[in-house]
Structure formats: C-alpha cells, structure tokens
Design goal:
The protein is of the alpha+beta class and 420 residues long. Among the domains are: 75 residues, no CATH class; 98 residues; 100 residues. It has ten helices and eleven strands. The chain has a four-stranded mixed sheet. A three-stranded antiparallel sheet has the order 8-9-11.
Amino acid sequence: MEYGWIMLFVLAIMGGIIAYLGDKIGSRVGKRKIKLFGLRPKYTSILVTILTGISIAAVTLGVMSVLSENVRIALFGMRQLRMQNEALETQRDQLLKQAGDLGKELDEKNRLIASNEDLLQLQQEQLDGKNEEIRLTQLDLQQAQAARDDKARQLSVIQVAMDKALQDKDKAVADRDAAQHDLAVLEETKERMVSTIEVLDKRIRILNETMTNIREGTVMFRVGEVLSSVVLSSGQDGKTTREELSRAMQQTNAMICRYLGITDENAVMVYIAPDEFNAAISALQQGEAGGKKLIRLIAAGNIMVGEPALVHIDMHDNNLIYHKGDVVYETELNESETAHNPELQVMRFLHDVNLQAKAKGVLPDPLSGNVGALSATEMFDTISRIKGLSGEHIVLRAVTLNDTYTAGPLGIDIIVEPIQ
C-alpha cells in the first residue's frame, strides 16, 4: 500500500511538471507566434498541448512499468500470461484426474487391508486356542516327567538296598534264607518300578507326539532348539558386525530352505525382531576388541513345516574350557559296584560328567540338556571293560578328545583302570 502511494505521488509530481512545462511552451509559442511544420501559431499551440499530453501519458506508463512488474506484464506479456494460464489449467485437470485415480486405488488398498486384518484376527484367535492346548499338554507332560523322575529315584534307592543286601548275603551265610527272601522282594519291587517307569516313558512319548501333532502339522523345530550357531568377533565397527550377523542369518535361512526343498533363493524362512537384532549388534560392538562371541539362533516357538521360523539370539563368550587330554571328571567304583549293575554305574558317571562340564561353562543343548553324546558302541565297550574287572576296585576317568570351547559339543574318551 505504501509503495502504491509513492508511485501515485511520483506520477502526480512528474505529470504536474510536464503540464507546467507544456503550458509555458504553449504560451511562448502563442505569444511569439512560432510556427512548427509550417502550421499556423494557433495549430502549433494545439500541437504542443497534444505532445505535452502524450509525454505525460508516456512518462506515466514508463514510471509504472519501471516500478511495477504487474504493469509490465499487463502491457507486454498478456499473451504469454494467457498461455501460462492455459498450461496451468491443463496441468490442474491432469492432477485432478490423477488424484481421482489415486483415490480409487487408495480405496481398493483400504478394502484389501481391511480384509487382511479380518483374516489375521481369525488366524490369531486360532493360534491362541492352539497355544492354550499346548500349554495344557505341557503341564500334563511335566507332571508325567515328575512322576517318572520320582520313580527313578525310588528305583535308585532300591538298587542301593539290593547292593547292600547282596553284600550282607556274602558276609552272613547263616542269614542266607532271610537275605534271599529280602533279595526276592527287592527284585520284585524293582520289576514293578521298572514297569512303572516304562508306562511313564510310554505316556511321555504319547504326550510328545500329541504336542507335535496338536496343530495338525509336523513340527520342524521345537521351541528352544538351536537352529544354528556361529562364532563372531566382537569389538568391530557397526557395518562389519551387521554384515557378519546378517550372513549368519542368511546361512540359517539357506539351511532351512534346503531342509524343506525350497529352491527359491529369495525365499525368507527366518525372522527376528529388529530390536533384538540391533541389540545383538550393539552387544557385539561393545564387546572386547578381538574377542570371540558364540551366537546361537534358537527357535522362539514350535515351528511347523511350511511356517517361517521366528528366532531369538543367544549370545555367550566363546572361551576355551578344556584342552585336548584334560580330565573332565573321574570317580572310583568299589568291588561291589563293579560286580553288580555296571550299566547303572556308567549312566551315573555320564550324568556326573554332564553336570561337571556344564558347571565349567560348556553350553548344553537346550532340548536335551546334554553337552555331548556317547555312541552306543562306546557305552557298551565301557560296560564290557567294567564287567571284565568285576569285583575289583577301579577308577572311571573322562578325558577330552579335542579342545572344547563354550559352544561344545564335548567329546570324551572313558578310561577304565584298576586301582592297585
């Protein structure tokens, strides 16, 4: 507004000056009877007045053109302005048409999303029902396992009593009849306990099969099962750490695809929560530079055939626990223990070896709880060697076959030696 008043003021001043000058020039022309272009003084005065008016108009337009871009456009760019207006209207029509098409596409996407949400809700309700069935079955399984363990403890106590009865039998010939009767009773009780354990074992197998098939599918991996493990360096930069952890995930994905016979290289069968993945990267970065971390990918739940695998990351320091040839555990067996039930003694020994290795830092399998496995051939060979030294005082010694790290597994050789 201030700018317009200034322009009007300038135009008024300049118009007044030009009018004044024109009047003076016209008066002098009239008084001196000056002729222009051969015209009479009267017409010359009129011509001067006309030229003065033209000058005022020209100066007015010139000043307005200099001071206002809109005036310049109105005077000299009207045609270009109309062309731009037509182009903008055409562009507006195109944009309105595109907006209409996008609106239709958005409506279609919204309908698809609503349909998928309904399907997802239905599947979630079905999954909740199946999870509740699994929970109840697991409770039943735990009760059966607890009953089996209780019977196994009772069997162990009975076995100890049998061993003592056999010792008493050898030492007291006079009480032979009573000892034989006690032995027979213990044998009968043992048979009942073994029968009970077999029934419980059968029930556990049935419950496991029920859990496997409860969702009318085949379980590919059980909850807590280790899908894969890898040792990564800690203390590296974020990019390198992310690449190595991603490579481990890709290798696990490829393993599952091969297991299922999937040939599509772009198929994704392993999923992990982004927060957990990023937390693992941060933990690796913050670890000691040059250190080694054991990364185990563990199934977050029972994974059915054809379903993607949701996994958790289990991270540990991968330390050297045993050197090759180290003694993991050793125990002595007296003459009575080697003479009676060497199978039970070997099982107890392996159980103690497993406990000792776990206490030392070797990670067990989450499902079985074992840090390693002894083949049936090796077990029978150990039992045979103990039977070969029946009635002697011996030592059982578990020695590592290789260097063993936190990741395991623990491989052992069982040495059976008599004590002189």
